[in-house]
Amino acid sequence: MELVLFAGLAVVAGVAALLVVVQRHAVYSALFLIITMGALAGIYILLEAHFVWVIQVIVYAGAIMVLFLFVIMLLDIRREPNPWAPPDRARILVAVVLSLVLLVELGMAVGQRLMLSPAGGPDVAGGFGTTQTVGRLLFTDFLFPFEITSIILLVAMVGAMVLAKKHQ
Amino acid sequence: MLEALIVMLVKIVVVFTALLLTVAYMTWIERKLIADFQVRLGPTRVGPYGLLQPIADGLKLMFKEDLIPSQVDRAIFLLAPSLSIIPAFIAFAVIPFGDTTTLFGLLSKPVPLHITDIDVGLLFVFGVASLGVYGIVLAGWSSNNKYSLLGGLRSSAQLISYELSMGLSVVGVLLLASSLSLVEIVRAQAGLSWWFGILPVPNWFVFSQPLGFCIYFCCALAETNRAPFDLPEAETELVAGFHTEYSSMKFAMFFMAEYANMITVAALATTMFLGGWLGPIAPSPVWFVGKVFLMLFLFIWIRSTLPRFRYDQLMSFGWKRLLPLALLNTVITAVVAARG
């Protein structure tokens, strides 16, 4: 049952992610990105990471995508230049290098996981995905990274405001 | 296993049917109440007191011609009404509408009166509600009509702005109940307490979080596009707004979504601030439904009393008044909760 659900969600996430890239129209790409995010949220449920699942829906599928659609509509990209036209050399080079980096990274992550626990995943205590557990970890073991993240986000926010003000 | 499955299915069917009926009859209640406020009679022709009016309206809408303008983005145009109505109904999966029941001794063991109780229930409702805006934005965009697009953009700006204050306004409740599960939040409101040491009141969070409740209520009006925040469908400026190009049942679906959303935010307000199903003597679902209808009555009362905001007033009210107040409420509650 779990395997069937996982396979279904994984296929949906993968196909939708592919469609994000190949769609000609930016609004359709955004819609498929929402579907990808939704499928990922489903996988989080299977992992019993309840808090992460709900945050995924609120932050990614909800807020960011709304803003994304906003940008697309205000820019009004009705006609993209033909995406099947052969791209220039520099672009291809960058794309190939970035793809290789991603591939190596993925391979390393999977390899590491396999070496750590050859049979199944790592042992985790029951209820590890609940709000209480995540919250406690966030404010004890991971307090420093958590606070650093909030400062970085604040800096980004102030920066965006300064940039937006300049145009007036 | 099988019994649990049947009980679950029965609960889903009952809740869904009750919601659909309430949505239909909310239109009748709203028309009757507004007629009362304006010293008119309201619908009287179809059935006694016009009680069959919603049925007649529904039938009429179903048999209307379904027009699809030729220049619309067809796929998204057809998808948008469903996208706005589905989240409106899903949110009810976690709202508890009563304590436990044995149906007057018919069932062997008590059945809890909620479809499901997840430990992130409150966040779930907010997450699902934040998806509802897609229906409106996409309807506005795909209609290929500048009034629709303006209505859709206004709506998304409004929903994003007020979602923040709405989320912050309930942090106080979370701090006091120390749980995100809606069932636990209701249970935390059991019993009596003393208000200012003299007045005995139920332990409902509306008494310990009056500011939070007011902010939540304002945001709830804005989130459901109700007057005085009904700018996305300002008839006088936008020729009805995001649903201008829709007809027949697709048009009806947007309205069903609006009423379903109203019921959802009213039920959430009941659960978080008014003690949910708690109350003496009468069975728990009666209390829940009664409180929800009290909230809905407030919505209609406000609609027939206040004129619509201007767009700049709407934005400055949300960002410059409600958001700081909600932050203040959060800080004060956190300090009090940490000391007590």
Structure characterization notes:
- The complex is a heterodimer of chains A (168) and B (340).
- Chain A is mostly helical.
- Chain A has three domains: 1-83, NADH-ubiquinone/plastoquinone oxidoreductase chain 6, subunit NuoJ (Four Helix Bundle (Hemerythrin (Met), subunit A), Up-down Bundle), CATH 1.20.120.1200; 86-121; 130-168.
- In chain A, 77% of the residues lie in helices and 0% in strands.
- Chain A has six helices and no strands.
- In chain A, helix 1 packs antiparallel against helix 2 (26-46) and helix 2 runs antiparallel to helix 3 (50-75).
- Chain A starts with a helix and ends with a helix.
- The relative contact order of chain A is 0.07.
- Chain B is mainly alpha-helical and 340 residues long.
- Chain B has one domain.
- In chain B, 65% of the residues lie in helices and 4% in strands.
- Chain B has helices at 2-37, 53-63, 74-90, 121-142, 146-169, 171-177, 182-187, 205-208, 210-223, 235-238, 248-273, 284-303, 311-339, and strands at 100-101, 111-112, 192-195, 199-202.
- Chain B has a two-stranded antiparallel ribbon.
- Chain B is globular.
- The N and C termini of chain B lie far apart (44 Å).
- At the A-B interface, helix 2 and helix 3 of A face helix 4 and helix 5 of B.
Condensed summary:
Chain A is mostly helical. Chain A is 77% helix and 0% strand.
Question: What key phrases describe this protein's structure?
Answer:
heterodimer; A: 168 residues; mainly alpha; Four Helix Bundle (Hemerythrin (Met), subunit A); 3 domains; 6 helices; 0% strand; B: 340 residues; two-stranded antiparallel ribbon; 65% helix; globular
Instruction: Describe the oligomeric state of these chains in a short phrase.
Output: heterodimer
Portion in strands of chain B: under 5%
Name the shape of chain B in a single word: globular
Helices and strands of chain A, in order, run as: HHHHHH
Q: What is the percent of helical residues of chain B?
A: 55-70%
CATH superfamily of the largest domain in chain A: NADH-ubiquinone/plastoquinone oxidoreductase chain 6, subunit NuoJ
Radius of gyration of chain A: 20 Å
Percent helix of chain A, as a range, is: over 70%
The CATH class name of the largest domain in chain A reads Mainly Alpha
Helix/strand order of chain B:
HHHEEHHHHEEHHHHHH
Number of DSSP helical runs of chain B = 13
Count of distinct strands of chain A: 0
Structural class, from helix and strand content of chain A?
A: mainly alpha
Rg of chain B, please? 21 Å
Q: Kindly report the average pLDDT value of chain B.
A: 83
Largest interface: A-B, 22 and 25 residues
How many helices of chain A in DSSP terms? Answer: 6
